[in-house]
Amino acid sequence: GYMAKPKLSTAVKDLTINQGDDFRFQLKIKNHDNSPVDITGYQYQCKVRRTAEDDEVILAAEVEIIDATGGIVEFHFKDEDTSQIDTDGDTYATTNTYTYDVLQKTPDGEATRLLNGALYVSPGISWH
Fold this sequence. Notes:
The protein is mainly beta and about 130 residues long.
């Protein structure tokens, strides 16, 4: 039978993480009718750069599919990686701004950007 492809629009969400902290977030991948997409065999990447055009990857998340049939995937920025991010603020309120996106690749190779936005990094004063 003919299956309509789920239409996924790119969501924009800004994230704030603390330098030196573990940071996790989950996405629930859904069809247009709000039913979960079975993401068995799907691949995900989440990378952080200074700007969208920048080649250098500042931070990459570890990805784990938590519930394939429920469409739930988790992204984890590890503390040893977030502690390496450059921040030049003197207070917690002074954040450095980076950009990130989340890419999805289906088993048949179709790539989609699911999510992007600004990533604000608050300096971890105690880690210095």
